[in-house]
């Protein structure tokens, strides 16, 4: 009897596993098709200089409309990474974003591009060449491109990754550590890395004002970043008091719904026109 029930439990478990495997396979097939049928889009979220409110850069964020349903990046990036589809997808995002930002710069708008990298993309063959090609084809200067990685990509068995990123940095490309403070890059380690910028994770910024520990930690990260000569960007700014505190702490740049939401290229066109008009 007990054995029977145990067997049944295994069956139920197997059925769940089966459904999960099927879902993943379907997602993988859909991703492949989406890539062929160009169902992906790039949105751009402005990053501003906190002292002047000037837009210094836009961060490219991939978007997928699976039919009429929006799929958040966090749901499909893992499977894209597992299947290797992240490599052609990332190449498309890179080229598309470089081309669009180079276009905005041609209108005399001095902005940079921030791009999220995936672990597999960096270790894929020809990664460095692909980035160089994207710059050459678009005319975007290397110094206008910032590549964002998370701490995990730089710490464990990351010699190949660090070597490739260093190669790109030697060409003038900037490097940023995204979601800073959530990983386990030690402060001493940070000094040895070829990094130009840290982006403070929203989990710190969200506590600004309300939570004393998070406020203290944010202040410490800002000071640390500056002491190391890094540009410090605060992410996930949603409320005015967060913005005020970050300004008071001397944080260099900021990003968040309060400042601007991610928007399609047309939205950035519009933002550019109003910005250029106001400064003319
Ligand atoms: P991330 O690079 O840390 O990007 C910031 C995320 O926070 C974006 O989510 C953005 O829409 C969201 N965000 C911005 N301001 C606020 C705010 O004020 N409040 C809140 N709650 N959220 C805010 P998104 O677009 O869903 O992207 C999630 C993550 O997926 C990114 O985190 C990044 O790790 C990854 N990702 C997005 N696009 C790409 C891409 O093109 N390639 C790669 N490899 N990863 C990407
Ligand atoms: Mg990012
Ligand atoms: Mg982040
Ligand atoms: Mg993130």
TrEMBL record:
<feature type="domain" description="EAL">
    <location>
        <begin position="24"/>
        <end position="276"/>
    </location>
</feature>
<protein>
    <submittedName>
        <fullName>Bifunctional diguanylate cyclase/phosphodiesterase</fullName>
    </submittedName>
</protein>
């Amino acid at each position: 009897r007990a054995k029977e029930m145990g067997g049944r439990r295994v069956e139920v478990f197997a059925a769940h596993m089966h459904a999960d495997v099927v879902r993943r396979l379907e997602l993988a097939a859909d991703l492949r098709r989406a890539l062929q049928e160009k169902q992906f889009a790039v949105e751009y979220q402005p990053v501003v200089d906190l002292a002047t409110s000037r837009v210094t850069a836009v961060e490219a964020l991939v978007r997928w409309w699976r039919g009429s349903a929006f799929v958040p990046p966090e749901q499909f990036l893992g499977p894209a990474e597992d299947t290797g589809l992240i490599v052609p997808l990332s190449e498309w995002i890179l080229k598309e974003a470089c081309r669009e930002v180079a276009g905005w710069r041609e209108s005399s708008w001095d902005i940079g591009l921030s791009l999220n990298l995936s672990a597999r993309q960096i270790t894929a063959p020809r990664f460095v060449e692909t980035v160089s090609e994207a710059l050459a084809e678009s005319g975007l200067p290397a110094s206008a491109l910032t590549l964002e990685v998370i701490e995990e990509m730089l710490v464990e068995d990351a010699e190949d990754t660090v070597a490739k990123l260093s190669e790109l940095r030697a060409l003038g490309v900037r490097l940023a550590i995204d979601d800073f403070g959530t990983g386990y890059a030690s402060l001493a380690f940070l000094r040895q890395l070829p990094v130009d910028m840290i982006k403070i994770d929203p989990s710190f910024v969200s506590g600004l004002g309300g939570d004393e520990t998070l406020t203290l930690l944010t202040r410490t990260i800002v000071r640390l970043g500056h002491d190391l000569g890094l540009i410090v960007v605060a992410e996930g700014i949603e409320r005015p008091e967060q913005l005020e505190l970050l300004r008071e702490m001397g944080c260099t740049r900021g990003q968040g719904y309060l400042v601007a939401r991610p928007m399609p290229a047309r939205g950035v066109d519009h933002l550019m026109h109003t910005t250029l008009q106001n400064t003319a």
